[in-house]
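Priority: medium. Attachment 1 of 2:
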């Protein structure tokens, strides 16, 4: 079984609440997540503990990494939603998608319809036509002029 990345940052801890790591609630806004991260990152930044004991430096470094990990998950809407639903931080699709693969791909991509295919075809053909006329017209004029001398 693949390990959840959260176990790398919080070894030996059974239950980790990433909201608690940043000292915020689970309904926090993106701005409050960012503010909490910056505040804690300044507290635990390794440069702030350069003159501390090895143990204190190590603890601050670990806390700094944990705060950064919590921010990376909670600041990304997709990863945050996955964490809120499953409590996991890995990218395992089977845990995220309730409606199966069809629902997953419908959420990821625009629905394909005959109208959308026709639009894409017209756009593609327009690009090809524009490319051909803009690139070949000078050459065609040159050839025409050379033949009619």
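Attachment 2 of 2:
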């Amino acid at each position: 079984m693949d390990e959840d990345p959260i176990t790398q940052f919080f070894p030996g801890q059974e239950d980790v609440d990433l909201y608690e790591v940043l000292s915020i609630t689970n309904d926090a806004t993106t701005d409050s997540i960012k503010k909490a991260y910056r505040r804690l990152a300044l507290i635990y930044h390794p440069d702030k503990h350069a003159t501390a004991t090895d143990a204190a430096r190590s603890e601050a470094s670990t806390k700094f990494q944990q705060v950064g990990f919590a921010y990376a998950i909670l600041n990304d809407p997709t990863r945050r939603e996955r964490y809120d639903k499953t409590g996991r931080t890995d990218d395992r699709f089977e845990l995220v998608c309730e409606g199966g693969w069809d629902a997953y791909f419908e959420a990821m991509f625009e629905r394909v319809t005959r109208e959308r295919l026709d639009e894409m075809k017209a756009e593609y053909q327009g690009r090809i036509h524009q490319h051909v006329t803009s690139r070949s017209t000078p050459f065609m004029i040159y050839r025409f002029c050379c033949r009619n001398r």
